[in-house]
Amino acid sequence: MKRSVLSTLVAGLALGAVLSAQAQTAEDLKSDGANPDNVLTYGMGYGQQRYSKLDTINKDNVKKLAPAWALSLENDYGEQAQPLVYNGVMYVSDAKWTVAINAVTGKQIWRTPVDFDPDTPRVVCCGVSSKGVALYNGLVIRGTLDAYIVALDQKTGKEVWKTKVINWKDGYSITGAPVVANGVVITGVSGAEFGIRGFIAGYDPATGKALWRRYTTAAPDEAGGDTWKVNDAYKNGGGSTWVTGSYDPDLDLVYWGTGNAGPWNPNYRGGDSLYTASVIAVRPKTGELVWHYQFTPNDMFDFDAVSELILGDINVDGKPRKTVMQLNRNGFAYVLDRADGKLLAANPYDRVNWASKVDLATGRPVESAVAAKLRSGETDTIWPNILGAKNWQHAAFDPNTGLLYANTIHMKTTYKLQPLTQPFKPGDRWMGVQDTKHEFEPGEPHGYMSAIDPMTGKPKWQVPLNDHANWSSMLVTKSGLLFTGRHTGELIALDSSNGKQLWQFQTSSGINASPITWSHNGRQYVTVLSGFGGLGRRFVGAAAANVPNGGSVWTFALPQE
Asked: DSSP state, 144?
């Protein structure tokens, strides 16, 4: 009997040792990108550069790239996620499922459903989706549409823990991927159009226990509370956090972008409305706010600042500087010092008429007569449109060239502020504007694929998109390739030095997700999710009239010799 117990104990310890050796540690996450076999973090590294050192697939042979496998995801909502890869297993999420796949063969290993209330999509502003998962210590961790955070066993897909973040009926949802920073799982939330009070929150990855919550609208007794002039406006002030933040392990700072203020009509808020339309830098262990920078004070344009915050070392005034960069929805390219948030550069990268410039001394935009007309209640047209000069689709950064590569939008919006006709009700829209009118300028492109100097905002090159803008993220490689997708379904490869298209493949649906590249046994692969959906489908028009729904994962490789 004692021998049996001892044998069981030894076997259990041995299995535990194997699982521990295979689990992702904090050190593994810090060095994501060092081992090209794995993609362990959202953004292909804590700095979200979406850059790979892999160069087996290059400008000369990319024309031979061919499908290695494809797998159906049985989902018609649309696919926006970035896959993760660890030890030959790929982990993928969408609104309906979390899936583990043999990354080399494409065979499904397990699939776990997300059981959300069928009424939940009514509080989702802009697409029923999931942008990805986090991996840590043998767990697959994700958010759900009904605002839970869930941890699954990597081997089996079985639920380990599930924590309610907030009540979805109050207008909240989670569509972004969580990040694990310094041993804490951090998630954001969506819902600014429904008058939520935005926040990011930290959780214990082992148990799902809540550790802290950092609100993005300041209460009267907090720093920034005086920027909400209307009593209690901060309680429904927006500031959603629906795109994953970045992390600098050396500074131990997490950088998270915050969304638009709520309601859009500023007369119901007053003041700058901190910390909406901003970047906040916080300590991952505690949620302590270290610094912030507000891109669009007193936002009334829906200029979310949630787009990726890219960490990179670039030359500023002839000296290397550790920076955080963003191509903001408001049309300006920003470069900040990532230690203290000092503004280093802010220049337009597309047409802008709501502000004439950003004052580097004060850090504030200098608003134009167009903005003044809108604030006075008149109707006018703004550039960029309320979707932004770039929306959530992520840019990539090549540390070798110092350039940002992005899919941008070239569109205007005409709208007018209006009084709120009903008192605030949880779960209902809380905006205060007339129906907006989105228009493309006749004879001009709908958007561009661009290589942008982050310090000047000027393009080194740009490729006009005359039929529809792209809503897929960019991926750049050491070999000088850019990969991105089109809503009409093509995965394409460009020469990163000039934007020339070198290859394309027609997938089974539209692409508005984030491609990755990885390797196994020395063979390089490229993977992307295909599935028509998301906010972009409203603006693709006739170009995608015959593009079918249906989610799938596509993986490509060069033919084996």
From this structure: -
HSE-up of residue 336 (Cα within 13 Å, Cβ side): 25
Task: Reduce the DSSP state of residue 312 to 3 states and report it.
Answer: strand
Show the tokens assigned to 464.
């006009």
Q: What's the sign of the alpha-carbon dihedral 464, 465, 469, 475?
A: negative
Q: Are 383 and 399 in contact (CB under 8 A)?
A: no
Query: CA–CA separation, 485 vs 505, rounded Å?
Result: 9
Angle of CA points 395, 397, 403, to nearest 5°: 105
- In Å, how far from its chain's centre is CA 91? 17
CA distance 322 to 311: 7
Instruction: Name the DSSP letter for residue 122.
Output: G
Under 8 Å CB-to-CB from 62, ≥6 apart: which residues? 481, 493, 502, 503
User: Quick check: pTM over 0.85?
Assistant: yes
Check 28, 94, 302, 398 and give the catalytic one.
302
Helix H, strand E, coil C: the string for 9-61 is HHHHHHHHHHHHHHCCCHHHHHCCCCCCCCECCCCCCCCCCCEECCCCCCCCC
Q: What is the pLDDT of residue 537?
A: 76
Give the separation between CA 225 and CA 285, rounded to whole angstroms: 24
Q: How confident is the model at residue 118 (pLDDT cuts 50, 70, 90)?
A: confident
Q: Which position has the token pair 């697409």?
A: 127
Q: Length of the chain, please?
A: 561
- The tens digit of pLDDT for each residue in 400-433 reads 999 999 999 999 999 999 999 899 999 998 999 9
Query: Which pairing describes strands 380-382 and 97-102: parallel, antiparallel, or unpaired?
Result: unpaired
Provide the token pair at 168: 């979805």
CB 516 within 8 A of CB 39: yes
DSSP 8-state secondary structure symbol assigned to residue 536: G
DSSP letter for each residue of 152-200: EETTT--EEEEEE-S-GGGT-B--SPPEEETTEEEE--B-GGGT-B-EE
Our answer to whether residue 146 is catalytic in this structure is: no
Give pLDDT tens digits for 310-339: 999 999 999 999 999 999 999 999 999 999
Q: Which two tokens stand for residue 4?
A: 């049996």
Cα 540 from Cα 535, distance rounded (Å)? 10
